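Dear colleague,

Thank you for sharing your sequence with our group. We've completed the structure prediction you requested, and as agreed, I am returning the results in plain text so they can be pasted directly into your records. Please verify that the sequence below matches your submission; if there's any discrepancy, let me know and we will rerun it promptly.
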Amino acid sequence: MTLPLSILDLATIGKGQTAAESFAGSVAMAQSAEKLGYRRVWYAEHHNMSSIASSATSVLIAHVAAHTESIRLGAGGVMLPNHSPLTIAEQFGTLETLHPGRIDLGLGRAPGSDQNTMRALRRDPMSADSFPQDVLELQGYLTGPTRIQGVEATPGKGTNVPLYILGSSLFGARLAAQLGLPYAFASHFAPAALQDAVAIYRREFKPSAQLDAPHVIAGVNVIAADSASEAQAMFQATKRARVSLFFGGGREFSDDEADMILDSPQGRHMAQMMTYSAVGTPDVVIDYLDSFGKHADADELIVAHQSPGTQDRLRSVELLAQAAGLVAV
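Please find the predicted structure tokens below.
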């Protein structure tokens, strides 16, 4: 494997599991990733989702950073329209001050929630329209000069926390290119525009103070296991869990019910979200990732280990690192 590998930790709350147990699993995953030679671990902002515990993203990053030593940690990403740029600059300026040289800040413009949750967040439905201006305002607080006269981020000013634009459409690709920032494409759940977005980003990229050449991070799902049958069983369990998440309305479907929904047009559409998934024994997974990296024209892959249980995800992290020849710390 020639491309660097990173991890997107979805901070999954498994069936019968608590949020506290999810956080313990995130710490264990980051510690394993650090030991095995992964480049970074990111956490995504989601709200009102009973199976995802990373809603307070910066707090989770702080907790994991306190239990690791060297691996880069960051948001993949913060949904900036949910927040004021000053608040995010202060949060990530604090993280960088406490953990120098280890913090990334990926930014998205999606709500990370539904319409009712947007209202609960006090978010203006039009706030996504100001995303480019908000990114520049945030950048000013972290790198200087400030774009709001007389307002500085403390901590934050001069920390130069690196920014990344996250996206699943051509909009993010063009913005990242225009601002000269790294671009992370969410192909692990939104595969359709991957190649077009990356091509636009590379073609339109303008060097900046942060980055002198394009840098593409592509997301991909991974389930690595000791046997092919075990990996496929975990993949099916993951898809069933998504059925309950997207269609359950708070209830859990039985396996038979979930399989029936997966066979429906709506279920097949949901399954297409996981088009880019490497599932199998380590040799099969690494071959897939090598091919996917070329397909995505990526400079780095960020993998979402989708096995349903904490120990299975940790095993997947380990097996992939061994197969990829990552250098243990």
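Summary note from our side: The longest strand covers residues 216-224.

Kind regards,
the structure core
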